[in-house]
Amino acid sequence: MPLPDPLPDNPNRWEGWRSYNSKNPYERLGFEPGEHPPNEEIERNCRTLLVWWQKKLPLKNQPSNPLAQMLRGGIDEAPKLLAEARSTLLDPVKRVAVDAELNLAKREAALAEFLKFFQFTTSSGFLSEEDEIGLIKTAMLSGFSEQEAKEIIDNELVRHGAQRKIKELPKPPEPAPAPVVHAPAGVDDPFANFQRILRMTKLEDGEMTDGQRDAMCNIGESMGLTGGQAEDLIDEYLDEANGMPVAPIKPVPKPVVAQRPVAHAAPKLSEAAAKAKTLAEIQVEQDFSNYTSSPDKRAAEKQKYPAFSNAPGVDMILVPTGIFMLGSNSADAAPNEAPMSQVAISCFYASKFPITNAQYEKFEPSHRAKRAPWADDYHPVVYVSHSDAQRFCEWLCSREKKRYRLLTEAEWEYAARGTEGRRFPWGDELDGGDRANFADAQTTFAWREVGVNDGYPNTSPIGAFPRGISPHGLLDMSGNVWEWCRDFFGPYSDKKKFNPRGPQRSAQRIYRGGSWKSRIGNLRGAARGFNLPTFSSNDVGFRIACEVD
């Protein structure tokens, strides 16, 4: 925010004073993003701001004065931070490094926003030609070249398993044989078909990410291959792409060939196999029955594991044992929310609110300089990566001698939706701006809800939306900030599971819940978000879990 001339003495008339602890040294000294001030202006702004803060020193002796409470830490910290920003920007080497870091952060933020547009555009699982042109234009407006935009779209299509929607062409007078069928008539060869799809990606070993490899494995399994067969074919394709000799592909074993029409009856199991399958299913049902929730069971668990507050002041409440349906098949669900599956969750503690600035800064005091300009002690901490959130949990473990960690993705969804499978934590409808903090009329996003005002243009203090409470008593699970989860991102399966974890490895980590920047669809309890574990932003924070003793 540029410096007004003269500076208002009353901080209520000038929001720019809050930038003294900005991570960006230009913002600390009152320069606009992208501005390249000469050294004379840097010196002038620094002097002006130092004089302004010096005039506020008498407030240190007036602790009950509202202005003193508003400016609190700035009176002590601002002179040092302003001088540090001046020194950095006057040093040519440091200034180049700062410019490079800011440009990288700007590019990463632009990519994160673009990927949200991409997810929304391809929520149906398909990308039309018109939508792709629109995505390319959007990426170019964000600073990417046309070629970079196309490469990002290609990679994301593979990662999400989405497809380009091909316009239907007029039928020729005589139907030609389908160009993709190379197997003998009446034979569906999933090995050859999958190998052909791999070659169409034109990816080499160094280019194929873990997420792309997982997506290709899913495609192979949907064609009738086992996971191991799909992995082998991917390895053979990558060897071929890198110029290495490739062993001939083995023909499909007859029992595995997908030749059966849909109307055919399923092959009969042997008597012993059928009996074993029945016993296994009975055992699963018996195990699941142990997780069935009831008012008496919930009351007994909560009496055994009462709520508590830890040393940093985090309120922990028990989420009781229960069973719910993970995922969604609703009309507005993303493809990665399916298939749905029945999941049993053991009881665990969860923080009633996201971790706040004050709580996190007891672990990392230097993070105060990264606070969003509008945020105070009671706003959720932001600009934290997945690694930062894990380190906070590790610090708590050593300090409290308890087993703290991030919530798994399944735990998070269960805590948000309960056993009823609610659309939102509070129910199935969003009936105004008093349930959650999201992209409302006060924001400038293209997808904002112009008819709703939730009262906050950015993040809000924790607990500001008591009507948004979840079935298990947690608040702020929808909107305000995305919340990092413990798991890597991966596709769902339709099998019953007990306390499931995500894949062993992946390029992205899960975060959930939507944020103050989100459209309504991302506030749903089943909506999934994910990003690189090093990613941080002004709308990403976290909530913690603690295992019961």
CATH superfamily of the largest domain: paralog of FGE (formylglycine-generating enzyme)
Global mean pLDDT? 83
Rg: 28 Å
Shape: globular
Classify the fold: give the CATH topology of the largest domain: paralog of FGE (formylglycine-generating enzyme)
Order of helices and strands: HHHHEHHEHHHHHEEEEEHHEHEEEEEE
Number of helices: 14
Which stretches of 5+ consecutive residues score pLDDT under 50? 178-187, 244-270, 272-277
Walkthrough of the structure:
The protein has 549 residues and is an alpha+beta fold. The protein folds into four domains: 11-90, Helix Hairpins (Orthogonal Bundle); 95-164, no CATH class; 190-241; 295-546, paralog of FGE (formylglycine-generating enzyme) (Alpha-Beta Complex). It is built from 14 helices and 14 strands. A hairpin with a 5-residue loop joins β3 and β4 (315-319). α7 packs across α9. The longest helix has 30 residues, at 92-121. The model is unreliable at 178-187, 244-270 and 272-277 (pLDDT under 50).
Q: Can you give me a brief rundown of this structure?
A:
The protein has 14 helices and 14 strands.
What is the topological layout?
Elements: H1 25-28, H2 39-54, H3 66-90, H4 92-121, E1 126-127, H5 129-141, H6 146-160, E2 163-164, H7 190-201, H8 210-222, H9 227-241, H10 271-289, H11 295-304, E3 308-309, E4 315-319, E5 322-326, E6 341-345, E7 348-351, H12 357-361, H13 386-400, E8 404-406, H14 409-417, E9 482-488, E10 497-498, E11 509-512, E12 528-531, E13 540-542, E14 544-546
Parallel strand pairs: 1-2, 6-10, 9-13
Antiparallel strand pairs: 3-4, 4-7, 5-6, 7-14, 8-14, 9-11, 11-12
Helix pairs in contact: 2-3, 4-5, 5-6, 6-8, 7-9, 8-9
